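Hi P.,

Sorry for the delay on this. The queue was packed all week, but I finally got your sequence through. Input first:
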Amino acid sequence: MNLASWKQMRWGVRLCYSTVIIISLGLAGCSGGRQSRSDQFIEFENAGPLRPQVDLGRLTQAKTPPDSYRAGVGDVLELHLPVILRSVEAESIGPLERIEPYLCRIGADGAITLPIAGPVVVDGNDLPEIEALVAAAYYPQYVVDRPVVIAGVAQYQTQPVSVLGAVAQPGLYRLRRDELSLVNLLMKAGGITAEGAGVIRLRHQNDPHGGEPLILPVAGLNIPFADVALTRGDIVEVEPLVPDTFTVIGLVNKPGAFPYPPGSKYNVMQALAFAGGMNDIASPEYVRIYRQRTDGSIIDVEMPIRGSGVTDASSVTIKPGDVVSVEHTVATDMRLLIAQIFRVTFNIGGNVSVVGD
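Then the structure:
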């Protein structure tokens, strides 16, 4: 066995030993959930069906703050330059005088073309940096004093994105580079309709089928929501709220909203089956169900996924509008981490490099 192979094998043994320690410390006595009380189940059984309302406050708060402007291809800049830099030959330039605006578009190469000085690459720079680049193009090669340059944006290059479904004004919108986010698009479209919405599906040009559905923030439900960046040609579909559905989210293989036909009766395990079953690696042990009371407030209960009691997932019936959430816990997060460690361990003979020792 050569030295490199010996180091790799010893590194793998250490990593496996660390994994055993993590298992012992992280999973011992940590189930990550607890069953709700029987009186909570009684109240839960009398509640419903859920008519969730989008939490507009959380939706607005999730909006990604705009970045400071960075120049991009297609933008038109307005540069305030001394007139003398534009009206004379380079060899005859003298003292700097009156300042006037000069318009220039950023080309496909990321550059603008300046009088006398020629092309200057500005793509990806903010306005103060552009001012410094333009001034440096003239000083000290063409002028004896550093010129005063003020840069602004005369026209932004925009990107087309579309929004369909349960918004006030569906259609095609053109957003600036610093506006390309899901929440910005929803606001441009006048927000969610009064009838409400539950699920958003985002489709990219290079992925027409889209990824996992996004669950809108719902008043009373502790469901995380974060703004999502958009790209050119994206299509956002806001699915209208249909009362005769139920939603499954969290550690399942195919989260989303599913029809609940009249006359049907599904228990929690069947609801999880609609969502493709649970994440095998995380192996969650508990599930939480959200339902609305008659006064509009939200009640939830937590129960074991597997078992034989009257309050386990195979015995509890869901109602139209319920939100079934297989949530992350300390235990599930630990299992996902351990799986990553084992993947690295078993690949140690391939792409893992050993440093030092």
